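User: Could you go from structure to sequence for me? I need the amino acid at each position, not a summary. Structure tokens:
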């Protein structure tokens, strides 16, 4: 399941890379939705929020996942956040946590990307370092809230932990 969650977070980042834009006056062309969060006390808005839903079956095992992500500007040239939920039951409006002990059939993940290849992830902490609530999930969109703590996973940075609070998202489902 951890491999599926990591793959989903990466897939979300790739989709956002191909969809993110910024117009010439420094404003944003928002083709998806928005994702807002307070990172270490600083309110931040991310644009072009896009989600993907995946169902995978292998033998008698079926897994379900949803990934949500957005960037401040052009992907990988600015900061971004990806969220994911993966589990053994269909994803629905509910609250999901970063460990199975709290919510046994699904796990939530949160990644915070700084400009370049610096990646911070919630899956390095336990328990419940990512709490993600899906308030509304339709065929075309997903809305909800999130919070968490993320730890440096890849790249070089002087800061190794970030606290993310007051997170909210409204994303278009791409598939």
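Assistant: Here is the amino acid at each position, in order:
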């Amino acid at each position: 399941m951890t491999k599926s969650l990591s793959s989903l977070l990466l897939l979300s980042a790739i989709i956002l890379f191909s969809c993110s834009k910024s117009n010439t006056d420094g404003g944003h062309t928002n083709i998806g939705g928005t994702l807002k969060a307070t990172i270490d006390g600083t309110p931040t808005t991310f644009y072009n929020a896009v989600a993907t839903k995946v169902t995978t079956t292998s033998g008698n095992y079926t897994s379900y996942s949803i990934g949500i992500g957005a960037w401040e500007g052009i992907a990988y040239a600015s900061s971004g956040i990806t969220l994911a939920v993966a589990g053994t039951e269909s994803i629905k409006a509910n609250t999901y946590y970063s460990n199975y002990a709290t919510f046994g059939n699904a796990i939530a993940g949160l990644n915070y990307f700084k400009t370049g290849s610096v990646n911070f992830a919630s899956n390095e902490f336990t328990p419940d370092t990512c709490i993600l609530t899906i308030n509304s999930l339709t065929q075309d969109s997903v809305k909800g809230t999130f919070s968490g703590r993320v730890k440096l996973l890849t790249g070089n940075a002087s800061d190794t932990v970030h606290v993310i609070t007051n997170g909210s998202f409204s994303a278009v489902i791409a598939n």
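One structural detail worth keeping in mind: The helical segments are 2-19.
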